[in-house]
Amino acid sequence: MTTTVPTTVNPNPAPTLPAMPAQPHPAGRRIVPALIDCAPIYVDCPSWCVMDHVAENEGALEDLYHSSDMADLYVASPSPNGPQLVLHVRLNEDPFLIRREGRGRNIVVDTGNDPFMLDARQAAEFADDLVALAAQVRAMSRTLAAEGQK
Fold first, then answer.
1. Residue 132: in which H helix or E strand, if any?
2. Strands 66-67 and 39-46, how do they pair?
3. Taking residues 16-28, what's their average pLDDT?
4. How far apart are CA 120 and CA 124, in angstroms?
5. What is the largest CA-CA distance in the chain?
6. What spatial distance separates the first Cα and last Cα of the chain, rounded to whole Å?
7. Which helix (H) or strand (E) holds 53?
8. Domain ranges within the chain, ordered by starting residue
9. pLDDT of 47-89, one tens digit each?
10. Strand (E) positions, the chain?
């Protein structure tokens, strides 16, 4: 004797992301899910990117970007708010910008105004300038300490 169990088929199943087939991929990159205007897609993502591309749910593909953790510079302040942020620096990649000249990887230096987009050479020069500035600030602090701070 055979028993038949009735089954119900959902005529409107919830959409799911299909499994991504294994693909050769450059070292330091990975394929991750993202949402663009609530539509699920997969994007190529650098290993240093800390963005949650699903949580961001950008409105358009050209708004999707990759960002590293930020390196922040603060200056001590006697204000009740404590140290004040001077600038953020982070790795950035805007692979889908409409303007081709803005696409690609760079280092963003953000002072709270218009951010500066630096290529590798410019970023190295900026780092050298920061080291030189740090030496000047250290020399000034020694002068101040030697003269007796008032």
1. helix 120-147
2. unpaired
3. 62
4. 6
5. 103
6. 101
7. helix 53-56
8. 29-118
9. 999 999 999 999 999 999 999 999 999 998 888 888 999 999 9
10. 29-36, 39-46, 66-67, 71-75, 84-94, 104-110, 116-118
